[in-house]
Amino acid sequence: MARFRTRLALLCSAAALAAGALAPTQSAGAAEEYQWVALGDSYTAGVIRAAGNVFEVPRDGCERTDRSYPQVIDRDLGGLFELTNISCGAATIENVTDEAQEPIGRHFPPFSEDPDHPFPAVPPQSEAVGPDTDVITVGAGGNTLGFADFLTQCAKLGGESDGKGTPCKDALNGGVPERLKKVRREYDRMLEVLHKRAPHARILAVGYPAVVPQDASSCTYGDLTQFGTVTPGDLDWLREDVLEPLNRAINNSTGTQDAASFVDLYDSSRNHSVCDDSKWVEGFVTLPDQLSFVHPNALGHRNAADHVEEAMLNTIS
Fold first, then answer.
1. How far apart are CA 9 and CA 20, in angstroms?
2. pLDDT for res 217
3. Rounded to an integer, what distance in angstroms lies between the CA atom of residue 240 and that of residue 118?
4. Residue 42 has what pLDDT?
5. pTM here?
6. Which end of the chain is more exposed for a tag (fewer CB within 10 A), N or C?
7. Where are the domains of the chain?
8. CB 221, CB 163: distance < 8 Å
9. Rounded distance, CA 309 to CA 217, Å?
């Protein structure tokens, strides 16, 4: 009920703002929409089938889905913001800033083959931003940190240890601080580039949701709809020493830019992790046979939409 009241308040605010925007320009025949560009990786684009259907024809391999949070917000606030969604699965921070990307679609051999692979390269996402951009939302950093690699290695090492101990932490923990420094360094530069390209825009840096539960012992070892063979000890390590510091690094970067602010998705999703009954993030697979590799489902994107909408409305209030 609380979430419904929040959604209702947001939509009423949007309606009021839209009415205010319309009033001065009705005599001119048209209302000006705020220009919004959505940038980011798969946690923005949607990618998995549990986050909706890919809607672009022909496909470009970025796998933007119709229940991802930019598309949800576009339906909620489409009369107020004009969306350009350029997010792309597997994007790094540098793919947002200034490096072209070769999208992979749903090509994950040997698990899945994408009949349309390979896809042509797409330009750096920042090229969609310009002087007329009013709001930029960006969700990136996980691929620069290498979170997917951590998951893959943790599952492999956890299987070899029969679920005991912290084999992944023991093997990889030493490299985490340097990876986090790289995230922070590249995120700072990305924000500078975005601000330079759109000096009047408000930048909303969207963090990552809770993926691992506070009590990792609630996860079932070997269950592919959760974390497969990642050990409970390594799940605690991934939460405490990888994911939470990633969000802090992003939040700290926004503090260096007057035009940027952080949108926290973590606190609101704490009880909706991969291992919770009401999950907002899928595990390695979604039954019956869909590869999801730990990505938000439609419920997770709905939660993200609620928080990002509120932040967007605050930028124009």
1. 16
2. 95
3. 36
4. 98
5. 0.92
6. N
7. 33-106+122-146+178-213+248-282+292-316
8. yes
9. 34
Helix, strand, coil percentages for the chain (3-state, nearest 5): 45, 15, 40
DSSP letter assigned to residue 260: E
- Asked if residue 118 has a cis previous peptide bond (ω within 30° of 0), the answer is yes
Beta bridge partners of 46: 64
- Cβ neighbours around 264 below 10 Å, total: 16
Hey, what CATH class is 33-106+122-146+178-213+248-282+292-316 in?
Answer: alpha beta
Distance CA 235, CA 225 (A): 15
Give the dihedral sign, CA 50/53/59/64: negative
For tokens 């601080």, what's the residue? 177
Compute mean pLDDT per 10 residues along the chain, 317 residues long, and list them: 42 45 38 91 98 96 98 96 98 98 92 92 98 98 98 98 98 98 98 98 98 97 98 98 98 93 98 97 94 97 98 94
Task: Give residue 31's pLDDT.
Answer: 58
